[in-house]
Amino acid sequence: MKGTPYEYPDPSRMYGGIRFFDIEPEDTSVEKNITINYLGKDYYPSTIKFAPHNGSWRIQLKGDPGDGTQELSKFGNDGDFVHKILVFEKITSTYYMLSLVEESELDRLKSLSKVWARNGSSTSSKAYGML
Question: Which superkingdom (predicted)?
Answer without folding.
Answer: Bacteria
